[in-house]
Amino acid sequence: MTQPSESIVRLRTVRKHYSQTLTAVDDVDLEVARGQILSILGPSGCGKTTLLRLIAGFEQPDAGSIEIEGRLVADPRMSVPPEARRVGMVFQQHALFPHLTVADNIGFGLPRVAADERASRIQHLLNLIRLPKAHDRYPHELSGGQQQRVAVARALAPEPVIVLMDEPFSNLDADIRKKIRDEIRFILRQAGTTVVFVTHDQEEALFMGDQMAVMKAGRLVQIGQPEAVFRAPGSTFIAQFLGQAEFVPARVTQDGLETEIGGLAQSVDRPPGSELLVGFRADDLDFEADAQGKSLLLARFFQGAVCQYRIRLASGRIVHSMQPHYRQHAPGTPVRVWFDPQHPLPCFDNGQAVETWMLGSDRQAQRLPGSLSPD
Amino acid sequence: MAELGPLEAAGGLAAPGGFRLPRLSAQRIVLLWLPAAAVTAAVVLPVVYLVLRASEAGPATWDLLSRPQTARILGNSVGLAASVTAASWLLGASLALLTVRTDLPFRRFFAIAAALPLAVPSYVGAYLLAAALGPRGLLQEALEPVLGVTRLPSIYGFPGAFLALTLLSYPYVLLPVRAALQRMDPALEESARSLGHNTWGVLRRVTLPHLVPALLAGGLLVALYSLRDFGAVSLLRFTTFTRAIYIQYQSAFDRSSAAALSLVLVALTVVLLAMELRARHGEVRYASTGIGGKTAQVIRLGHWRWLALAYCLALVGVALVLPTGVLAYWLLRALQAGPELPTLLEATGHSLLASALAALATVVAALPIVILSVRYPSDRSRWLDRLAHIGFALPGVVVALALVFFGLRGAPWLYQTLPMLVLAYLVLFLPQATASLRSSLIQIPRQLEESGRSLGRQPLAVFHRVTLPLLRPGLMASAALVFLTTMKELQATLLLGPLGFRTLSTEIWSAVSEAFFAEAAGPALVLILTCSIPMAYFILRDQP
């Protein structure tokens, strides 16, 4: 999908360290296109917040450069202060000014705008966030979700070229988080804003982003459409981080891949006889009760619509299989297990993804858009 | 910030050893670093001067320090501090236990009343004690017609100083022990009960060990208070370091030996402060693990509660009612004699003026230091902050003396002027102001300021529109604290006040040193009224 479009923010080999041993951001190259929502996903401590603070101007890079709308804003020698970057920021704790009303919060970034225009801008934003009458209320009188919407409106008010969001939903209760993020995504889409959004919650990253970047130990390890990254993770780390991935060793043969769970009709960019790891999720695995089966059903975890089964393979390896709730099996049953993927399963060599495609199909047609080509 | 990992949080921790010097904006240098450095220099210079002065004397200093008299002063100081601390432990811990954990009648009242002596300056307490129990005090006057007593055994010396300081400083033990008791997880005691211990066993084996950090912290505060005290020991004529330094300076005009004695005193207080820091580190081990809100079981005292009541009544009687009664009595006598209202008004005016100036100067001086150390943490800003705390380690008489030296030699045009006095207050009370401002600034999330910046506002505009309005209560509280402390200050005022600059504290001092008890009553009342009400507010506000 990534057609050459106008990039709003461009980072070139940006590096930031806090001490000799503590490198928060390490040689990051990144481009964000106009109107795009980019979510950056990474475990806590991976440097994603530092990346946002570098773009916003609260930190200065030790190496590399940052451009906003084609203008150089930071390199190791210079740094345009945050107030001159036209970058909106939404924090985890919303950071609304507690001593100002909602209207004054939203109008904070509009000091030189004429009063009537200011008022109409504030009204427009209040309508956008569906709090049209909230002008005179104070932040403490609002619910967490309302505060979050006001924080977004405040960031949008000065018409920034980009809005940065630092774990904006992690402070909200789990039960309203999904609703709020749905709303916020709608608001941002309506405003046509370019957004960089940081989270450690993979579901949130998959949901929010047009593009998703995965970060690990200061480096961007994969960028692409969320679907592509999800289906073809670039490394075992990413596969694990994106969902409960399981791995099983595989050997490359003429007919595909051979594993202890069974064969896979997949071609791999490695010569026959090579050893690989195949990654899969519980929904890729099927089984049936079979008195001759060499695997054993250990436990059953009922999760409502689906049911997960824990299975011990003949080798002793523990795997999981997801089944619809109406299929019932009792723990202790011997079973036969096989792969039932509807797509090529990702393969890894030394932790890194290896290109793979369905046997007999066109290699290029199988290639997922935006996915990182393996090294 | 709960979700931040070590890398992200490192933004607020700064590089150990300073990996790369952070770039400074010109604005930050002019508005923050220069004023902070100037304040720190003003605070540190006199002390450096004192050290130089003491070392100048060379061998003579050593002769002086090795005199048997110095050993006696040292013995007096340490002995007084130790005995006052021991007595405060007994009084403070017993009162805390009684008011938090037992069915003592009126325990809420006793909890508040027992903390109130904290608001009384030591020289006022000493004055009231001397006026009541002195050889020719109130007690003697009451006894003379009945028993024909013309003179009571002297309260001056160790007994008076011990009694006065204990009654004034035991709240330093009472308050932290009370807080520790209230914070303690009731489940600890309940587990001990269910494991088969009775009330006394639980008290001995669970509760008291739990109170050790609070007892240590409070006890060290009491010891510091006793070591630093000048007013009570001087009025009650017990020669500790502070009094010796003052006498040395006043009578002999032997400034090097006063400086040398000051250094010994400073060494003592620094040792105590170091112990206090270590004690505070130990508190972590005792951190409460339970949930608040649950209250521990009340110990039923049975018939013992009447004894406990008598004990509390006696203590509150001696520590509060007696002094108040004495004050009222001498006040009446002063009124009969025709009060010297103009003098009183003048002294009150001077006190208010000096305290207001001190509060303003100290808070303004503290602000850049606090902003730097909270918002721009680095080795440099931490050092500024630490140096600004030097007044905390120095007894008032030492700071005053250092400034006298400095004023005489370095800045004669400042000596015995109001600005010099205000500078002394600043050195002494800057730690108070920075501590209270810091806790306010820390509560203002940094993200508020960053939001302001990313909304396109300049740093100064953000400070003015966001930080300052939110910091205002903290600024007011910190100014009020410095104001109150300055009102009570005696040593620096005595040594550095401009000629003829009489304040409430110097009025009380000069009247009582001549045993004109009636003359001290007016200023003492005004002082107690201006101090104790807000002080009581501060004490109670900090109580959970």
Structural account:
The complex is a heterodimer of chains A (375) and B (544). Chain A is α+β, with helices and mostly antiparallel strands. Chain A has two domains: 7-224, Rossmann fold, CATH 3.40.50.300; 237-366, no CATH class. In chain A, 22% of the residues lie in helices and 34% in strands. In chain A, the strands form five sheets. Chain A has a six-stranded mixed β-sheet with strand order 6-7-8-3-9-10, with helices on both faces. A six-stranded antiparallel β-sheet of chain A has the order 13-12-11-15-21-22. Chain A has a five-stranded antiparallel β-sheet with strand order 16-20-17-18-19, with no helix packed on it. In chain A, helix 3 packs across helix 4 (144-156). Chain B is an all-alpha fold. Chain B has two domains: 27-49 and 339-544, Orthogonal Bundle (MetI-like fold), CATH 1.10.3720; 57-288 and 297-338, Orthogonal Bundle (MetI-like fold). Chain B contains 25 helices and no strands. Chain B is globular. The model of chain B is unreliable at 1-22 and 287-293 (pLDDT under 50). The chains are: A alpha+beta (375), B mainly alpha (544). The interface between A and B is large, with 51 and 36 residues.
- What's the CATH class of the largest domain in chain A, please? Alpha Beta
Largest sheet of chain A: 6 strands, mixed
Distance between the termini of chain B: 26 Å
Please write the string of helix (H) and strand (E) elements of chain B.
HHHHHHHHHHHHHHHHHHHHHHHHH
Number of helices of chain B: 25
Q: What is the second-level CATH architecture of the largest domain in chain A?
A: 3-Layer(aba) Sandwich
Shape of chain B: globular
Largest interface: A-B, 51 and 36 residues
Strand composition percent of chain A: 25-35%
User: Uncertain regions of chain A: pLDDT < 50 for 5+ in a row?
Assistant: 368-375
Helix % of chain B is over 70%
| Count of individual beta strands of chain A | 23
Helix content of chain A: 10-25%
CATH superfamily heading of the largest domain in chain A: P-loop containing nucleotide triphosphate hydrolases
CATH fold-level topology of the largest domain in chain A: Rossmann fold
Q: What is the domain tally of chain B?
A: 2
CATH topology label of the largest domain in chain B? MetI-like fold
Mean pLDDT over the residues of chain A: 88
What is the CATH level 1 assignment of the largest domain in chain B? Mainly Alpha
Residue stretches of chain B low in confidence (pLDDT < 50, at least 5 long) are 1-22, 287-293
